[in-house]
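Suppose you are handed a protein chain with no further information: no name, no annotation, nothing but its sequence. What can you learn? This example shows the usual starting point.
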Amino acid sequence: QVQLVESGGGLVQPGGSLRLSCAVSGSGFRINAMGWYRQAPGKERELVARIRSGGSTIYADSVKGRFTISRDNAKNTVYLQMNSLKPEDTAIYYCNVGIYVVVGGDEYEYWGQGTQVTVSS
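A reasonable first move is to predict its three-dimensional structure. Written in structure tokens, the prediction is:
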């Protein structure tokens, strides 16, 4: 079994900060890339940030310079540090993880349950 548990969402004022966490539990697999996506009401789900196992990262243009993605491989956890938050950052944020099974090498993707981030004064 592979499970993803997200935490860290909430209500914050414009200019504030939040840190999202996504912890992966289970056994018999290794993690490849990890990422964060978000979906606002009436909009398509979009990639926010992605980090590969080697540490390389990509960001959506709208969050560059404000958000930072990182991972702790020992804890099987990915983080999203969000600074200088804007109202347009309001969305449900989803964790996404790619894994491969040690025996056989099959690859799978998993999604977290989503956590609400609301930026409002």
